[in-house]
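Morning - flavin mononucleotide inputs below, output right after.
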Amino acid sequence: MKEQLQKANLIIFAYPVYTFMAPYQLHRFIELMKEMDIDFSTKFAAQVSTSMHFYDTTAHRFIKENCLDMQFKYAGGLSAKMEDLLEKQGQKEALDFFKKLMFDVKHNIYQQEKVPVTIKKESIYEKSLPIRAKKANKQVTVITNVAADDLNLRNMIDDFVSAMAYEVKVFNVREFAFTGGCISCFRCTIDGTCIYKDGFQEVLRNEICTSDAIVYAYTIENHFTHSSMKCYDDRQFCNGHRPVNRGKCTGYIISGSYSQESNLRVICEARAEVSGMYNAGVATDELDTALSINQLAKSLSYSLDHNIKAPANFYGVGGMKVFRDLIYVMKGFMKEDHRFYKSEGMYDFPQKETKKIAQMYLVGAAMAIPSIQKKIMSNMNEYTIEPYRRLIASAEQRNKDKIE
Ligand SMILES: Cc1cc2nc3c(=O)[nH]c(=O)nc-3n(C[C@H](O)[C@H](O)[C@H](O)COP(=O)(O)O)c2cc1C
């Protein structure tokens, strides 16, 4: 493999997008590439992915940042939808991409950009937080890939465990004997079971997904973390596209220059959003204080105490629309996902909003009459504010009744 890489003038990373990034296998390959003593600075790199366009952006950014780390001349990427190559338009786009890529290589055109650099810290995070008494009715799980010699992250996790108001168990993915990474066989989408018999599915369902909060703890490497975490992420696909942890809490304990890693920040936020979990915060060791760990523990404890929920933002709303449409179209095949989406009322197609659609027709018809249009337009703000005014008035009335 080293010889092939050495010989190449252009290396194309071709992969299916898996859980916001490249598959575990490619993450591992990139780690190995970085360990090889090869000068990539005269070589070009590009990427081609297939996906459902669900966070293909973060996947491409991840590959690009790693190409730039390796000093490649990065010449762009093609993010195709799964079936694009079967369509004339998709074929043309792929051909255009390759022609342009060849042009770029020939004319030495490539993208130059600074990549975030994780600064290796001199000092080690010192444990300092006292052990808090634990309440018994909720369970928190920390998923980590902490390495045996990563004392820094170990201390951060220990402090978090101490400061939490609830029992915390720690699942180290490096200590689990995964038979392999997800290979996209899609068996799980049909009958909900994984082809691997290494027991991960049982641990995930019976020990991790039963927790009230799941916190991820890792040290930044290669703009994410060591690939062992990606193996865990991808194998979670045995739960298909079902946000089985919806309504629970999450959080992150991250060692490294998190504030520099904008793509990683999007991934962390978007994962919480898409899974429908309340993000209690991200604690890092960037300022070298226990404050952020303590703050995360307090924030998460409070969120669990009060069963905090938050509306989804664009990352969550947009992501779930992609999934919803995918599962609806694939319902004959992705039966487990379909059952879940149906029973959880997740098929929230806009054409179901018949009342609102009818109301808008009525408004549209009324607005076609010039005199009504004039009246409505001059009072538009009033019409918009009116329902909120009524809401506040009735809340005030309820308060008044209570006092009396
Ligand atoms: C574990 C796993 C994770 C996936 N994650 C994503 C994802 O984050 N975004 C997306 O658009 N598609 C995702 N997919 C769909 C794959 O991208 C899709 O199956 C692949 O592009 C199809 O390529 P193939 O026919 O070569 O397998 C995922 C599939 C699997 C199995």
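Note: The chain has three domains: 2-107, 135-314, 353-403.

O.
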